Amino acid sequence: LQQAQRPRMAAMEVDAEAGTLQLYQRDVNCLSDDDRTTRRRALTRLAASVSTLASDEAAGMQTLAALWEQSLRAPLLKLLADPVEKNRELALALTAAVLEALPQPVIRASLAHVAPAAAARLSSSAAAEPTEELRLELLRLLGTLARRAGTPLSVYLPEIAAALRAGFADPFPDAKKAACSLCVQLSDVLAEHIEPHCAMLARALLPALAHQHSRVRTAAVEALVALLLREPSALAELGPQLALLATDRASSVREQAVGSVARLLAEMPHREANTARLLPHLLCALSDEVESIRSLAHTSLARLGGATDVAAQRVQPLAALAPDLMAAADAATFDGAPPEAADARGEEAARVAAAAAAAAAPPFPPELAETTFAAAPPAGAAGLVACELHRLLPPALKELSDWTAKARIRAADTLAGTLWLVGPAATDHLGPLLAALSKTVEDSDEGVARQVRRCAQLVGRSCDLAVYVPLVLDQLRAPSGAALVGSAATAGCGGNSAGGGADFLRGGGHSRMRPAAVTVLEGAETDAGAIGRRAGWLSLLGELLAGATAEQLRPHLSALLATVARPVFCVPGRASDDDAGASFAATQLRLCSFLGQLISSAGAACASGDNGLLLYSALMRVASVPSSAQHGFASQRRAIECLSAMAAAVDGGSAEALHAVFLPPLLAQITAGETYKSWKVDSAEWHLFQALCRQAGGATCARVLLLLLPPLAAVLSPKEEPTLRLTALSLLDSLLSAEGFLAAPEWAEMGEHVLAAMLLPNAVWRALFPGSRGGSERSVGE
Q1: Quick one: 416 exposed, middle or buried, by C-beta within 10 A (0-12, 13-18, 19+)?
Q2: Confidence class of residue 423 from pLDDT cuts 50, 70 and 90?
Q3: Distances (CA, A) of 137 to 99, 132, 190, 253, 392
Q4: Would you give the distance in Å from CA 570 to the centre of its chain?
Q5: Are the C-beta atoms of residues 741 and 747 closer than 8 Å to each other?
Q6: Does residue 205 contact residue 245 with C-beta atoms inside 8 Å?
Q7: Residues 664-683: what's their mean pLDDT?
Q8: If pLDDT is split at 50, 70 and 90, which confidence band does 172 have?
Q9: Cβ-contact 433, 393 below 8 angstroms
Q10: Rounded mean pLDDT of 759-779?
Q11: 90 pLDDT band (50/70/90 cuts)?
């Protein structure tokens, strides 16, 4: 009986369903009416009916599915292109409501109708939706399809990809964000099918990545990462834009970028080929002004270092890995090396960096306090970065000379994070590294200059002084335009001999320098460009040695002081023009700052003996430079202050005692060979002679009277120009007025000779016949 009744019951159910559908047929028919109001009313009634049917999970859902497939789908999708905006809005809302309520099999069966229709309204063709709010809803509709339909939607990826590209370029910010969200969703749902479209979609994201709204940029970064995880080939092209986002003005964008880069490094296929492109963004974030971003970058690097299988993870004692950093620096750089050799050396650098990070670290310089760099880096991250160092450094150093301050600060931040992690592994690259830092250590942008100073301090703390001090000194001695020697083969000119520097001052030349080099310097190293360049190297050297102890400095003091005490180092041999004078004045200030730092760090080791003579000579040469209205007396005052500090470093003595020790040998040097006979009023040696006499005090000068009188007699000769004799008479007057000079026994013996040989000849009236050396003139003695 039941079997006989089943066909009848099925027929009754079909009749009932048909009757139910007939209730909605009038409204469905009205969707095609010519009157816009009729269509709008039909859409409103159908929306209410769909809401009622969706609430009944059993019969209502079955009825809704039948209504959708049999009669509602075609006219409703046609209304997505209705000429009336309100009708398009209602049709779109009704379509979204139906798709949310329908079972998945029905949605998949309708993909051939819904997906092309929605994508067509988002394309750049004439059928595109003109209203921005409706374009936003269309993108959300495609998101609903992706969520509900799943893998079968991959058949329509070409149409959807075109809609996404249009969404990325949409002028409506919310539509851009919706397109980015849809891109992320498709990358997850259709991970195995979206790969052919990833590169094209990633390039289309460029406008959104540079959008003025931070939330759009944040959404675009998320979409870009989702695409790159499926197909990383576009990373090389989009790397510069990702770098801009890592330093974005909005902290939310920077944080999103840092997290995205960390995810790419952890999950991207073939990430080894792209590590050098992505690591700089994390390294740059270590210097971010926001603590949460710095912490995120630090944590991400530590996690990556712990998860990456590099040779640096096998940490060994540093002494066993690199017993001779000089030899490591002497080796060739990575430039031009075969990939296998570069990788092998990268692994060695990774072991060195990891070992240094795990070892007990020396104290950090004060400028690094309260920064990420004031603590030891994670050993695993240090090994990871050091392994890629030969790929990371060249682009960072190139960008450090960019014409925009934003690019330079990004490069400096990246460089600081790199140097903090790699530690002594940077020794192989000191040549180009120091050259780049010297050009920007005094950058016009304070943020760049501050970060470059930190970079220099990190290098000075991690690398051996025996490697980088000779490299810098080579530049301080080099003729204008000379290139930095990249190898540490010249490290032997560190000048460990105790008396080499003093011998140079006495005319013997530095023990490690060729005499020919000195000749070139005296002729070529007084131009403004060379002097200005020297200021950068002096500032860099000061930052490199900022954390050095007296024990570390002692072997290098002789070479350091001999280099800066050379007569032509930063003192013009003759009067210079305003531009050159500005360069000289700036370099003299840098020199005084460096010497003051050296006195503070090394103490008595640099203020006594041969080193003391070198230091005294350098300071007195700066103090003797005549000033002008444009440049003031800043460098001269600073030099006198350093002399006082130097005196205090030697058992708390006074400047007078310092002059008593070092005045005689310095006077003997500048008067040797009777060079004073060629002095002019603007000669540097004549200015130095005057400064020595005026600063040393009467009693000290009286004790070296035999050294003072020959130069004075020469410049006071009636044959010399009047201006020179006038300045000499003024100097002699100050000596005669100085306390203790006339009371000295040396003066009692020589006073009569001074009167007869110097003063009386200049008190005589002298006349020249017309035509003889320019006519008549009067002596300064008149």
Answers
A1: buried
A2: confident
A3: 13, 9, 21, 25, 44
A4: 29
A5: yes
A6: no
A7: 88
A8: very high
A9: yes
A10: 58
A11: very high
- Three-class secondary structure of residue 448 per DSSP: helix
How many CA atoms lie less than 13 Å away from 587 in the CB half-sphere? 29
Say what the pLDDT of residue 737 is: 87
- CA dist list (Å): 442 to 7, 453, 485: 94, 9, 22
| Residue 758 DSSP label | I
Look at residues 264, 266, 262, 267 and name the one whose alpha carbon lies nearest to residue 295: 262
Query: Does pLDDT of 1 surpass 50?
Result: no
CA distance 467 to 574: 36
Q: Left (φ > 0), alpha (ψ -120 to 50) or beta: where does 674 sit?
A: left
What is the rounded CA–CA span in Å between residue 116 and residue 108? 13
Other beta carbons less than 10 A from residue 681's beta carbon? 18
Taking Cα atoms as reference points, which of 84, 176, 79 lies closest to residue 130? 84
Average pLDDT, stretch 171-180?
Answer: 93
Q: Which residues of 70-104 are buried (b: 16+ CB within 10 A; e: fewer)?
A: ebbbebbbebbebeeeebbbbbbebbbbbbebbee
Asked whether residue 480 carries a pLDDT value surpassing 50, the answer given is: no
Token pair of 597, please?
């730092």
- Tens of pLDDT, residue by residue over 110-131, are 999 999 999 999 876 666 888 9
- What's the rounded Cα separation, in Å, for the pair 475 and 284? 29
Instruction: Look at residue 517 in the predicted model and tell me its pLDDT.
Output: 32
The SS3 of residue 394 is helix
Does pLDDT of 14 surpass 70?
Answer: no
d(CA 373, CA 307): 22
Residue 450 to residue 440: CA distance in whole angstroms: 10
pLDDT surpassing 70 at residue 513: no
**Rounded to whole angstroms, what are the CA distances from 516 to 290, 487, 531, 560?**
54, 22, 20, 20
Alpha helices in 31-72 (DSSP H): 36-55, 59-67
pLDDT confidence of residue 309: 47
Global confidence as pTM? 0.76
